[in-house]
């Protein structure tokens, strides 16, 4: 359906060339109509066929994995897509979850994590230092004895199955669905509190309670025999009293294991579980958990890192090795903005993007792929970001050869000169790089519309 190859302005404008005072970058002039469509949709036939069967038979799960940078880590754009697709085709669970708060960063709202221990983290944007960064794209480790609580916030996300992803699928964690309070009894010396009366001396008080002056002084931290009326003293006695101590005890469950994760299944839906160390290790490393339920529908997994680029994912092979744990039917890739602000040329960006796509397909040969082009933005709140226009053109040029579909967000949002107009509509943040919460929500709505239109066309052609 492509009629041209570049997306540098909206459809009503025509320019010969545009020069921007950013290292003398000159952009191409070719323009394409910015209809909200996904191109090269034939590559999506396998996931559309599975979606059709889900719709007709009300059975099974479809796994969608959305990978990106900050707007995916915060689950803004992706959260809206999940909401709409699950409302239409069923909610099969919260999907991939990661304790971003324990890594001291932001994350989505759907799952709450708590822990009594401190955790160390390393994002994939940093140079490898030995931390085993995998599916979450953020390494998370602790050396402490810990309890990690996980609780879904909404009853619609109650789950039957939890899968735990660790480096090399090591058995590092036990799972408990509940804890019980254990009451322990012990004895301790009985202590009497005595209020000092006028005229009393330590010797008189010691004689009264059948103890010694030195014991009273020791128990109360007194350095001299001077005491003051109206104050209190703790008097140790030879008697013993019972004392109750309460503590929580977690009952580990029997975990099963496959080649990709450790997992637990419950016939009843759960809202909360605890992860515990299952043996003495020097370091416990968690790459994420996957929450599923028996109900048919969509599992929409999100993986994002603030500031991430394709090259950041590429430098950690474990990310791709663990991706099959999500059993992806569709992988959506939303990267490119951070590359543009590093001023990567289109050639450099496409090389990294292709390496990323090739790694995804090598580990998940039956997964379909959609690339969403990066959206329009400004350099220094003033100069149009021509790099994302170049990226978009090159993404579209090679989509057939590389076997992926494309959603041209750059054009749908208005192209190169759209930023200030989008800002007036409240769709962008003040930095003119990031979009507002409403802007990301609109992106999610527009992507969902394009995806469902492509699916409906598939159904028409299928008949």
Automatic annotation (TrEMBL):
All copies of domain LysM, residue ranges: 192-235
Gene3D superfamilies in UniProt: LysM domain, SGNH hydrolase
Natural source organism: Flavobacterium beibuense
One Pfam family in the UniProt entry: Lipase_GDSL_2
GO MF, one annotated term: hydrolase activity, acting on ester bonds
Protein name per its UniProtKB record: Peptidoglycan-binding LysM
InterPro entries assigned to the protein according to its UniProt record, in alphabetical order: LysM (IPR018392), LysM_dom_sf (IPR036779), SGNH_hydro (IPR013830), SGNH_hydro_sf (IPR036514)
Record SUPFAM superfamilies: LysM domain, SGNH hydrolase
Stretches assigned to coiled coil: none
Top-level taxon in the UniProt lineage: Bacteria
């Amino acid at each position: 359906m492509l009629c041209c190859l570049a997306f540098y302005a909206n459809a009503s404008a025509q320019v010969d060339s545009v020069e921007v005072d950013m290292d003398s970058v000159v952009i191409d002039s070719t323009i394409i109509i910015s209809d909200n469509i996904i191109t090269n949709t034939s590559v999506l036939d396998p996931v559309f066929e599975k979606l059709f069967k889900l719709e007709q038979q009300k059975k099974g799960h479809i796994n969608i994995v959305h990978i990106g940078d900050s707007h995916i880590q915060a689950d803004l754009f992706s959260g809206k897509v999940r909401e709409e697709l699950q409302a239409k085709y069923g909610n099969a669970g919260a999907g991939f979850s990661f304790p971003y708060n324990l890594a001291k960063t932001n994350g989505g709202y759907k799952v709450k994590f708590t822990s009594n221990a401190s955790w160390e983290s390393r994002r994939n944007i940093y140079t490898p230092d030995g931390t085993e960064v995998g599916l979450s794209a953020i390494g998370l480790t602790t050396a402490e004895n810990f309890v990690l609580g996980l609780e879904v916030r909404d009853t619609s996300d109650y789950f039957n199955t939890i899968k735990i992803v660790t480096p090399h699928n090591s058995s590092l964690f036990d799972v408990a669905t509940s804890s019980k309070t254990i009451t322990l009894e012990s004895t301790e010396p009985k202590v009497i509190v005595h209020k000092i009366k006028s005229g009393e001396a330590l010797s008189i008080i010691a004689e009264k309670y059948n103890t010694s002056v030195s014991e009273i002084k020791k128990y109360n931290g007194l350095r001299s025999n001077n005491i003051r009326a109206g104050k209190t003293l703790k008097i140790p006695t030879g008697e013993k009293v019972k004392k109750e101590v309460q503590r929580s005890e977690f009952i580990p469950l029997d975990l099963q294991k496959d080649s990709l994760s450790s997992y637990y299944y419950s016939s009843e839906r759960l809202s909360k579980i605890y992860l515990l160390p299952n043996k003495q290790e020097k370091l416990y490393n968690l790459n994420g958990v996957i929450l599923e339920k028996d109900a048919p529908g969509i599992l929409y997994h999100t993986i994002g890192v603030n500031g991430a680029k394709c090259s950041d994912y590429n430098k950690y092979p474990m990310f791709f090795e663990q991706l099959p744990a999500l059993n992806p039917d569709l992988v959506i890739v939303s990267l490119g903005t951070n590359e543009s602000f590093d001023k990567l040329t289109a050639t450099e960006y496409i090389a990294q993007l292709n390496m990323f796509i090739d790694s995804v397909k090598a580990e998940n040969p039956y997964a379909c792929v959609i690339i969403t082009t990066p959206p329009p933005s400004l350099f220094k709140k003033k100069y149009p970001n021509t790099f994302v226009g170049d990226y978009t053109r090159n993404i579209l040029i090679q989509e057939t050869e590389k076997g992926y579909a494309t959603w041209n967000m750059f054009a749908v949002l208005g192209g190169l000169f759209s930023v200030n107009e989008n800002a007036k509509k409240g769709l962008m943040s003040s930095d003119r790089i990031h979009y507002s919460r409403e802007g990301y929500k609109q992106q999610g709505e527009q992507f969902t519309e394009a995806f469902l239109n492509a699916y409906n066309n598939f159904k028409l052609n299928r008949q």
